[in-house]
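Handout, section B. The chain below has 276 residues.
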Amino acid sequence: MSLGKEWRTFNAVFRRNLRLFTSYSTWLIATIIWPIPLLAMNIYQYLGVASSSSVSTTLSQNYGLTLSGMIIVGTVVYLLYNRLLWSTGNSLQQERWMGTIDVLFLTPASRLTMLLANGLSSLVEGAWWIVAIFLLNWFIFGIQLTVTSWPAVAITLVSTMIALVAVGVFFASFFILSRAADQMASSLQAPIRFFSGVAFPVAALPQALQFVSLVIPVTFAISALRATLLSGGGLVDILNQLLPLYLFTAVFLFVGYFLLRIVEKRAKKDGSLYQM
């Protein structure tokens, strides 16, 4: 493996994606605005049954969380996951739609490097509007941070991003094999939001449903960020969330690479990826 060649491949894909993303100013604005109603809906559904102070008191006593903080952190992580699912996870399918997937698989460039470049560019694209969404909703809905260890926050954020990139790499190959990227990506949205506890603590779920939450990496990312940002948790306090994230990262990268090889073998055997 030539590191120079891999870097040129990575850099080319990364720069292409950023140029595409920044070419449409209305798109940039829309990505900030559309999540606000989602956050508002998650917050006001609680306020329909009790006052904000009452709900926050109950959440604080039982789970060590505040209403707005719990929902904003959960929604931000979910939006980042959603961004990677639709960009990195859908990247090979987009190449097929554009008619370039056969050419892509004929190049000597590493497909895994391309997917990782797609993942990092998605993180950069998502980072600015995630920060903008966080600050805007902090101003609108209010949130009180309780941070005792910024290194723990930084490690949690980096671990979350790496894990979500790995998820995107896995789905990129899985979607191209299934020929149902849009349908599967859409069908995953509501279950992930529910089982990962975007708008409520996972501990509030029945025990049987909590077991489902344990096989979703977003669950651990949300839990770790809530602990470090809202409950004053340190690195030792979130090890139980970080270790599963690292395990998910390794598994999804390994399986994603294995699926990529299957895609390549089918392309060589059948001569086309359009019939898959």
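Note. The chain has a mean pLDDT of 83. Compare this with the example in section A.
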